[in-house]
Specification:
Strand order of the largest sheet: 1-2-3-4
Distance between the termini: 43 Å
Number of helices: 3
Structural class: alpha+beta
Largest sheet: 4 strands, antiparallel
């Protein structure tokens, strides 16, 4: 079952975590101060899981739909689209 961004926000934190791990696609991680931030794609929105490295528990989620919020991850993302475009271009030239 795919939730909307609004439906996800209304879930209790425990259910949000279960949904991210069950339905999300992991994309990248980054450091932000003492936090490790993991980015997931959830069908129609993105979710960051913020984990304090000094405490083993999840601190909070940050969700967004605006792709501009992906800027901190751009140098870490390796999208499979690049390979598909390269292969398609190579086939055209053959």
């Amino acid at each position: 079952m795919s939730l909307t961004h609004t439906d996800f926000i209304l879930l209790p934190a425990e259910e949000q975590g279960g949904y991210v791990f069950g339905q999300g696609t992991y994309l990248a991680s980054r450091q932000e101060g003492s936090y490790c931030v993991n980015l997931y794609y959830l069908h129609s929105f993105y979710c960051e899981m913020w984990l304090d490295q000094h405490c083993p528990e999840l601190d909070f989620f940050r969700t967004f739909t605006n792709q501009r919020c992906l800027t901190p991850y751009l140098d870490k993302l390796a999208l499979p689209l690049e390979q598909a475009v390269t292969v398609r271009q190579a086939n055209r030239n053959a």
